[in-house]
Amino acid sequence: MSVSFVQIVSGNYRKNDVSGQVFELVEQFKTGAKGGFVTVKNGGKFPGFSDVIRINVEGPMSYQFVTDVEAVAQPTVADPTATETDEQVMERIRERFDILTEMTKAATNGDIRAMIVSGPPGVGKSYGVEQEIEKACLFDQIAGKRLRAEVVKGSATPIGLYQALYKYSDANCVLVFDDCDSILLDDVCLNLLKGALDSGKKRKISWLSESSTLRREGIPDSFTFNGSVIFITNLKFDQMKSQKLRDHLDALQSRCHYLDLTLDTMRDKLLRIKQIATDGALFQDMDLDQTAQDEVIAFMDLHKNKLREMSLRMAIKIAQLRKSFPDRWNVMAKTTCMRAA
């Protein structure tokens, strides 16, 4: 029987951060009463505990497979950001989000054809993009024109994707797919996207199957796409395991600017939240004084390995409790926002 090894991208065991460490895999990702986990062999890393342990992770993308040679040569892989100070980490993250804003502006101007934004959920990937899209559509709204951009959330069928691409096929039009990972996992959708984002001068897309939907909507069976596309996703393209899917995604990635927000560890996510709070944007509409804001962030830092998720949404939830129940918010947050011990 072959042995598989995994390197933890982001995870913890009994409050110990094991990001970067390599373990022998026993069983892949599952979810339980206390959240998601991957089962691995202890390998002597935690003396006194079971030979088989469960590493708490957010999902399958929180670990990656490595070869047995890599596992033997690097039993513990250090986090490359471990030497960064908190200020350096926040500056690195801030720079990435500033680039995201600039690239989104370039897409709304038609200067870039496509961009993929990759990062964990709940860190504000969508917020900056949606702000720029709203600005781009403001003059259209004032002039009573059809909006030249749309944010699509949820899932999309291949024919639905074809219709959306046609609707926003003019120059300076932008389609944003926010967490529509289904289109990135569908062969037909990927082929349509590869055609829409081709590097040639003319980007022609065709739908050669019979479709009463397209006839009814007056959509031709082929057209030239001149717009731009932005993908916002939790997927990391370089960590997909399926070779067939990996080939498709590599082809798509070669046509796009790829921006990884590098928020791979619990520390990165917490510092992202601290950064936005420090900038005054996180609690600005909640009428919380600075002491209360600091208490919320301190609570998240103290209980980071037990919170149901480390995200901006979680920070807002806890802040709402702090405002509504100033005397009991701590107990209520532990009860509603943390996994059971």
What brief labels describe this structure?
globular; 3 domains; 341 residues; 40% helix; alpha/beta; Rossmann fold
In short:
The chain is α/β, with parallel strands linked by helices.
Largest β sheet strand count, sense and barrel closure: 5 strands, antiparallel
Strands in their spatial order, largest beta sheet:
6-5-4-1-7
Domain tally? 3
> Helical element count?
12
Layout of secondary structure:
Layout: E1 5-8, E2 12-13, E3 16-17, E4 22-32, E5 35-41, E6 52-56, E7 63-66, H1 68-73, H2 86-108, E8 114-118, H3 125-143, E9 149-153, H4 158-167, E10 174-178, H5 181-184, H6 187-196, E11 204-206, H7 212-217, E12 222-224, E13 228-233, H8 243-253, E14 257-260, H9 266-278, H10 290-302, H11 312-324, H12 329-337
Parallel strand pairs: 8-13, 8-14, 9-10, 10-13
Antiparallel strand pairs: 1-4, 1-7, 2-3, 4-5, 5-6, 11-12
Descriptive report:
This protein has 341 residues and is of the alpha/beta class. It has three domains: 69 residues, no CATH class; 175 residues, Rossmann fold (3-Layer(aba) Sandwich); 72 residues, no CATH class. It is 40% helix and 19% strand. The strands form four sheets. Strands 6-5-4-1-7 form a five-stranded antiparallel beta sheet. The protein is globular and about 65 Å long.
